[in-house]
């Protein structure tokens, strides 16, 4: 893409993640941002971030209340199914609740959060100075730009066009602020999930780099023991960073996963379970509303589905790369036999590996690996079938009642 030629190549980890950190800060989910090659966090940054979050919550509540009071919106809402209205109301409540939990949780872990990036930057510096590694920060930054810009265009377009069509182009002074507030409230937790994936990817990249260094032909004889101890310390530090990431993101990821599960199930039910209602509708307005609603929900579902399907893959890859590093370290005794210092180092690594079983987790028990994808998909499909069967049973009951009334009218009772 031509735009990348105008973007300065990042020279440090802080410049590499400055885009996602600043967007996260603007959305009120963190109390720090990058400035001058480091992260800045003080009472003023936290106050600004909290103020933006509170304004988004108050703004969404005020604009929704103003929209509901308009005659046009009341007519449109009466055309929708009551179950669909209940799902929409539940989505607004759950989104606001998850946003508040995400904001408070990440703000409470601000110092630990900043320390994760600081330790990563120190590891990068050590890799560059001691082992001559080349960190391709530009590739990671370009990936962030592509993903965030694509999601922003789709999400902003879907929300704004959906609300504008719902209001038929009227009351734009209310619709546009409502859309922006909703985007901030829902986009903050979604972006937090992407940042978690980015951290897992950054750790996986460094594990792969250490694997390239941990080769017999690259381990030079001069100062061998010092270099090996340095590599062992870096592998351990990266694994400890996984534990730090779990502490920072445990509550946030658990709430986000619960919200994504509820949202995906409800939206799939509206899309598939209510499509027959649209095809049978004889009212042009109702049909237009149904098609517009399904298009809006289909686009909005892309973000939670992407998170639930891709995040476990990044986490699993990071853990696998870390295990490969530990396996290579355990082979040092075979590569350099007869060295008691290296033998003792290998034994300490094996004891450490038995003591620490490190995995990415959500909450305190859910392990984020590839099995989560199968679990999530099966649960969503099962609940979707239950909701659709419930709706079909309800429709069948209504048809039976209509037939009974028609039969009574025909008999003359």
Overview of this protein structure:
This protein has 413 residues and is mainly alpha-helical. It has one domain. 80% of the residues lie in helices and 2% in strands. It has 15 helices and 4 strands. The protein has a two-stranded antiparallel sheet with strand order 1-2. Strand 3 and strand 4 form a beta hairpin. Helix 5 packs antiparallel against helix 9. The chain is elongated. The N and C termini lie far apart (74 Å).
Short structural summary:
The chain is mostly helical and about 425 residues long.
Major beta sheet, strand line-up:
1-2
- Rg calculated over all Cα atoms: 27 Å
The rounded distance between the terminal residues' Cα atoms is 74 Å
Structural class: mainly alpha
Helix content: over 70%
How many domains, as an integer?
1
Q: Mind describing the biggest β-sheet?
A: 2 strands, antiparallel
Judging from the principal axes of the Cα atoms, what is the shape?
A: elongated
Order of helices and strands: HHEEHHHHHHHHHHHHEEH
SSE topology:
Elements: H1 13-16, H2 18-26, E1 33-35, E2 38-40, H3 43-68, H4 71-79, H5 82-108, H6 110-131, H7 137-166, H8 172-213, H9 224-273, H10 275-279, H11 284-300, H12 302-330, H13 332-335, H14 340-355, E3 361-362, E4 366-367, H15 371-411
Helix pairs in contact: 2-8, 3-5, 3-8, 5-8, 5-9, 6-9, 7-8, 7-11, 8-9, 8-12, 9-11, 9-12, 9-14, 9-15
Q: What distinguishing features does this structure have?
A:
mainly alpha, elongated, 7TM_chemorcpt
């Amino acid at each position: 893409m031509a735009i990348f030629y105008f973007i300065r190549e990042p020279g440090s980890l802080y410049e590499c993640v400055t885009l996602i950190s600043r967007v996260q800060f603007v959305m009120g989910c963190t109390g720090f941002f990058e400035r001058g090659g480091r992260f800045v966090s003080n009472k003023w940054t936290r106050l600004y971030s909290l103020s933006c979050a509170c304004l988004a919550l108050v703004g969404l509540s005020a604009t929704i209340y103003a929209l509901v009071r308009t005659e046009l919106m009341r007519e449109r809402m009466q055309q929708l199914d009551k179950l669909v209205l209940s799902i929409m109301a539940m989505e607004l409540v759950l989104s606001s609740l998850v946003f508040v939990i995400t904001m408070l949780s990440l703000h409470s872990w601000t110092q630990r959060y900043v320390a994760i990036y600081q330790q990563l930057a120190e590891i990068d510096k050590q890799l560059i100075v001691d082992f001559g590694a080349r960190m391709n920060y530009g590739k990671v930054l370009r990936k962030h730009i592509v993903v965030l810009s694509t999601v922003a265009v789709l999400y902003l377009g879907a929300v704004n066009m959906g609300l504008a069509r719902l209001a038929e182009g009227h009351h734009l002074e209310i619709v546009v602020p409502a859309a922006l507030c909703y985007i901030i409230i829902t986009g903050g937790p979604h972006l937090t999930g992407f940042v978690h994936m980015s951290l897992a990817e950054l750790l996986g990249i460094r594990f792969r780099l250490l694997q390239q260094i941990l080769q017999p032909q690259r381990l030079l004889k001069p100062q061998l023991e010092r270099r090996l101890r340095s590599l062992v310390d870096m592998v351990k530090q990266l694994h400890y960073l996984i534990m730090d990431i779990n502490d920072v993101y445990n509550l946030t990821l658990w709430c986000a996963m619960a919200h994504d599960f509820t949202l995906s199930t409800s939206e799939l039910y509206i899309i598939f379970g209510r499509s027959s209602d649209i095809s049978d509708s004889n009212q042009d307005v109702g049909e237009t509303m149904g098609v517009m609603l399904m298009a809006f929900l289909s686009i909005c579902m892309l973000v939670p589905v992407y998170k639930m399907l891709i995040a476990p893959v990044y986490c699993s890859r990071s853990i696998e790369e870390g295990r490969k590093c530990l396996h290579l370290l355990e082979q040092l005794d075979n590569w350099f036999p007869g060295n008691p210092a290296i033998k003792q180092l290998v034994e300490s690594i094996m004891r450490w590996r038995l003591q620490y079983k490190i995995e990415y987790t959500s909450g305190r028990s859910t392990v984020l690996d590839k099995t989560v994808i199968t679990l999530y998909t099966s649960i969503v499909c099962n609940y979707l079938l239950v909701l659709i069967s419930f709706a079909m049973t309800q429709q069948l009951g209504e048809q039976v009642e209509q037939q009974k009334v028609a039969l009574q009218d025909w008999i003359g009772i």
